[in-house]
Design goal:
Arc Repressor Mutant, subunit A, three-stranded antiparallel beta sheet, binds zinc ion
Length: about 110
Amino acid sequence: MHLTAEAVHGRAQERLPEISLATVYNTLNELVAMGEVLEVPAGGGAKRYDPNAHLAHQHLVCTRCGELRDVFPAGETALSLDADDRHGYEVTAVRIVFEGVCPSCREAGAA
Ligand SMILES: [Zn+2]
Ligand SMILES: [Zn+2]
């Protein structure tokens, strides 16, 4: 489940009709800072929020409709940088986004 802030806001309003979008953004930012929620860059679309923060995974995104799925790539996913390429950074995470066209978009395209 990867919701945009607007979608989280919509859901929150079902319980708390007065809640503002700003409150939702602030809460999401706090959760991201605490490491409870991941921010997922979604191929140019609105940022998504991912509650699956404690399980290492990567993302597959449809470049047409923006559908986003969790994927667990097989094989060597621990990409590493040589010291020279690290520019003095301490690298703490690698994010991989696989981009492509989902089955429903492919069907729509073929029709
Ligand atoms: Zn699609
Ligand atoms: Zn995810």
